Structures are given as C-alpha cells and as structure tokens.
Amino acid sequence: MVFKELFREWRIWMLITALLAALVAIGPHYVETEDGETEIETNVIQGLDLAGGARVMIEPDLSDVPYEEHEEMIQRTIRTLRTRVDAYGLEDMTIRSVSSLTADQNFIQLEMAGATTEELREIVDREGIFKASLSKEAEDGETLLLGGSEFELEGRNDSIVIGETEIAQGEEEEIQGSEYSVPVQFVNRTEEGRYNIRLVAYRGEDITGVDINPAQSYVRGQEGQYSFQFQVSIERTAAERFRDLAQNFEVGQTVPGEDETYLQGTELVLILDEEVISSLNVASVFREQVVTEPMISGGEPTREEAREQRDTLRSVLESGSLPVPITISSTDTVSAVLGEEFMRVALTAIFFAVVGVGLLIFIRYNTPKVAIPIIVTGFSEVFIMIGIFADGSHLFDTAGGLGLMFLVVGVPTLIGVVTGLKQNDFTVLLFPVVSLFLIGMINFSTGLDLAAIAGIISAVGTGVDDQIIITDERTRERIKSLKKRVKRAFFIIFTSAASTIGAMIPVMTIGAGAVRGFAITTIIGVIVGITVTRPAYAIVLDVLDVE
User: Fold this and answer.
1) Three-state DSSP state, 100
2) What is the pairing mode between strands 94-99 and 295-300?
3) What does the pLDDT read at residue 52?
C-alpha cells in the first residue's frame, strides 16, 4: 500500500529517473582480465588522485602582455599545448587554466592518468617542429622541378632516387638544386607503382605572424557550413620556394560555387612533430606569383567546430612554439597503488558518513520512519553524483544508446508529468527541465578525484541538514497547516542552497585545481538535492504520515 501511494507522486518518479540515468551513465559491465578472470568495470572516470598518474603546473610569463590580453594569451598557450598533445596521440590528457585564490597569478595545469612527470615535462619542453609540405603522387621517370633544377625520379621497391640522392621510405632528404635545396620526404609506394612524396615548402621559422580578423570568421555559407579565414605572413624566400614548388602541378578545374581554381593533385599538408594535423587545398595563385601573406580558409558544419578548426590551424601554423615563456611551478605524481587505496578509503568514508548520520537521526527522532528515508535518500544522492563522473557520451553515438536514454529518462518523465497534472500540481513542469539536466550530465564527463569526493560528502551533509529542517517543520505544533509547514521548510532550504551556491561560485571561478573541483561538485550536489532528493524525502514523510 505504501509503495502504491509513493508511485502516485511525481517527485518519486523524478528520483527514480535520476537513479536510472546514473545507472546508465555508470554502466556496470563484465570484462575479462588478462588472467582469464571476469570482473565488473564501470564507466566512472577516475581522476589522477584515484587512478594514479602525473600533474604539472606551469606558469606563463605574462609580464610583457597587456592585462586585457592575459586570458587570450593563456587560451592560445592551451591551444598550442593541446595541438601538441593531439599530435602525440595522448587523448586522455587534461589541460585547463587555473588561478590562485587571490586571482593575481595564472597557471596552466596538465594532468594525465598513467603518465609520469617526465613525460609531461617532455611535452612542455618540446619546441614543436612544424613544416608545411606539398603532397604529390609521382611516377617512375617523372621530372621534378626542385631548387631551380630538374630532377628525374627513379622508383624502387622501398626507396626512390632523385638525382643522385636515395630516399628510403618514411625518410626525408635534402635535394640540392642550382639555387637552393628542397627537403623531400618519401611517404610510401602505392599498389599501382606510384610514389607518394612530400615537398617541404616552409617550416615554422618561416612564419612571421598569424592575423585573425573576427569579422572574417564564421560566415554562414550557401551549403550550410560556417566558413572562416585568416591571414598568415611568411618570409619572402619561403614564399618564392612555395611558388617554385607549385610549378610541379597543373591548375585544376574551378570548384562548383567558387571563382577560385586550385592546383590539381596536391594538398598543403601541415605536420607537427611528424604527425599530420591538417590538409588544405592550394589555390592556383601560388603557382603564378609570390604570396607572402596567404589566406587560410576552411569550413565546418557548426560555428563551434569552425572555431575549433580555426584555432587548431592557427596553433599549428605558429609552429607549435608557445606564445609566451613558461616555467614549471610544481609537479605531482600519484602511484596507481596509492590511488586504489584512496578510492577504497573514500568510498568507505562516504558509506560510514551516510550510515552514521542515519543512526544519529534515529537517536534524535526515535523512529525508523525518519532514519530509513534519510539513509535511502543519502545513498541515492551519492549514486546520482557518482553518475555525473561517468562517461556516458558513447550513448549519444548510436540509435540503441539514444533509445536506452529515452527509456530510462523519457518514460519515467512522461509518467511523472501525467501523474502531476492529474493532481493539478503544475510544479511538475520542473520535471522535464531536471530530465534535460540529467541528459546533459550523461554527456558531460570529468574525472572523479578526492576533491570531487569531498564535494559529494559536503553535498550529502548539506542534504541531511535540509532533511532535518523538513522533519522539524513537520513536527512543529504552532504551525498547524501541514502545507504551510512544508512551504516554510523549503523556503529555508532554498535560501540555504542559494547561499551555498553563492559562496562556491567565486571559489569555482578563481580557484585552482582541487579547490575548483570541490566547488563545482558541491554546486552540482546542491542542485541535485533541492530538485530531486529533498522533494522526494518530503513526499515519503507525507506517505508515512510522520508527525
């Protein structure tokens, strides 16, 4: 009978929806280890404190940069580091800007699970070797114009010979012409007996500047793409070399919808530390004249993707070198063994915190009708919060994943909304908003670390305070109307939540590292509490008729 009454309340359905969403995000599943044993794994992302790894804090030198440009310079440095990290294939590295508590110092934090401080130092200390090459598929016996001289290409199985220089597959050699030398890289041999080569047009030191005009970016094109363009300045000698190398290609047909023609059979390949970052079409104007300030252009389906592609190209064209000098302020290493111990202790602390509070509540009110709901909602809040630190983004990539999300979020939401409207409770319209928030949290992923666990415990502790307020207001004799008592309790709760969030926002904004993570987790926990678990607890007390 009690459960039947509970399922008639839309706030209970909102709690069920949140728990199901967390379960889907956490995604417990069986995996087989190298030893042939089966164990349970989840999608929870363990941060550095729990998984082990390394963290490096670097401080950019902004002394020569105007104050109003500090943020832009920090973001440029982060983009350059991100481009360098992507070139090394280290996708799991986190790079973010942080500041001191007094906001007078700016830092950039790099951290990666399973890495060492030496590996992170290597990424920071590397200059970032950049080069731009014209790709070409050449035939055996084809003539190439390099450095003012003509050379015949001779193809072999695992190498090519240009002039008297033999180039092994994957290697790069200088071909000396009558005027200057040209680096040529032999990429591979195709099945048709042709040879993919790259003619190095210019390197990072040849680029003198990159100029972005915001007015020329993110223009919606005819095909629905957001186009962008920016200007690059290069040394005249490099521009002349580019023109000479362009003579090895014919002018292609005009691209439909465009007035400009492009060189046929080639692309400008941008390479950072021997990794290809991007490839661009080459306009025919580069074959006809020396262009020292070429325009780089491109397009993406969305404005955000266009901005990301533009910034990536900008970082690459700046040769991967950092825009300002930096110094390494601190390094931290956490072993995987210590991380597992942290996880065990943290989960144990959460368990005993919730159970201990439940026992104290039982002693205070001397009834399981209050203690058990507080313990259940406490563990529910912990479970929902842990779900926020699980990577459920893969569910958005398949029809099956989207269907599962609709099943666990959409169906309970629909049932809850219908239930609330039947009771003429129009506050049920908050339910879809909370459901959208939960879906956003499934797609949001960040690492669970000690700061996050401290934030979870803090949020649960705040929740217990609110639940005590709800319970006390229900048992006050001088306010006879139950509805007025509950309204009074929730007024106090929302006021307390607003003050907590207000106190955490400055810490989240200017806080560094663990302090910032604690603030974000606390804010999310408070939001989950006042929208999901506290209302559900109040409904449970109504159904159990706690007076």
Assistant:
1) coil
2) unpaired
3) 74
Domains 2-26+335-544 and 53-127+324-333 are alike in CATH topology: no
Distance set, CA 46 to CA 42, 49, 392, 436 (Å):
10, 8, 14, 25
Q: Which residues contact 363 (CB under 8 A, 6 or more apart)?
A: none
Reference 534, options 456, 471, 440; nearest CA is 471
- The class that CATH gives domain 2-26+335-544 is mainly alpha
Are residues 199 and 184 in contact, defined by beta-carbon separation less than 8 angstroms? yes
Residue 131 phi, psi dihedral angles, 5° rounding:
-150, 150
Q: Biggest alpha carbon distance in the chain? A: 102
User: Which residues of the chain are modeled with pLDDT < 70?
Assistant: 1-2, 33-34, 86-92, 100-104, 126-128, 212-224, 253-259, 315, 318-321, 336-340, 445, 473-497, 507-514, 545-547
Cβ-contact 86, 354 below 8 angstroms: no
Give per-residue pLDDT as tens, 23-81: 988 888 787 766 777 878 788 877 777 777 788 888 888 888 888 888 888 888 888 78
From residue 200, how far is each of 175, 182, 203, 391 by CA, in Å?
Answer: 11, 7, 8, 41
> What residues does each domain of the chain span?
2-26+335-544, 53-127+324-333, 128-307+314-320
Are 439 and 404 spatial neighbours (Cβ–Cβ below 8 Å)? Answer: no
Pairing of β 53-60 and β 38-41: unpaired
Distance CA 61, CA 192 (A): 53
pTM score: 0.60
pLDDT of res. 435: 86
Condensed to tens digits (0 to 9), the pLDDT of residues 200-254 reads 988 887 888 777 665 555 455 555 677 777 888 888 999 999 999 999 998 876 6
440 vs 435: CA distance, rounded Å: 9
Residue-level pLDDT at 161: 92
Q: How far apart are CA 251 and CA 260, in angstroms?
A: 11
What beta strand segments (E) does 212-250 contain? 219-220, 226-234
The residues, ordered by sequence, that sit 6+ positions from 142 with a Cβ below 8 Å of its Cβ are 152, 153
Count Cβ atoms below 10 Å from residue 523 Cβ, excluding itself. Answer: 21
What local confidence, expressed as pLDDT, does residue 479 receive? 46
Between the two ends of the chain, the Cα-to-Cα distance in Å is 19
- C-beta of residue 241 within 8 angstroms of C-beta of residue 182: yes
Nearest to 425 by CA among 486, 481, 369: 486
Question: What pLDDT, on the 0 to 100 scale, is given for residue 259?
Answer: 63
State how far the Cα of 15 lies from the Cα of 3, in Å rounded to an integer.
14
Question: Is the CATH number 1.10.3720.10 carried by domain 53-127+324-333?
Answer: no
Strands 130-138 and 106-113: unpaired
Per-residue pLDDT at 103: 59
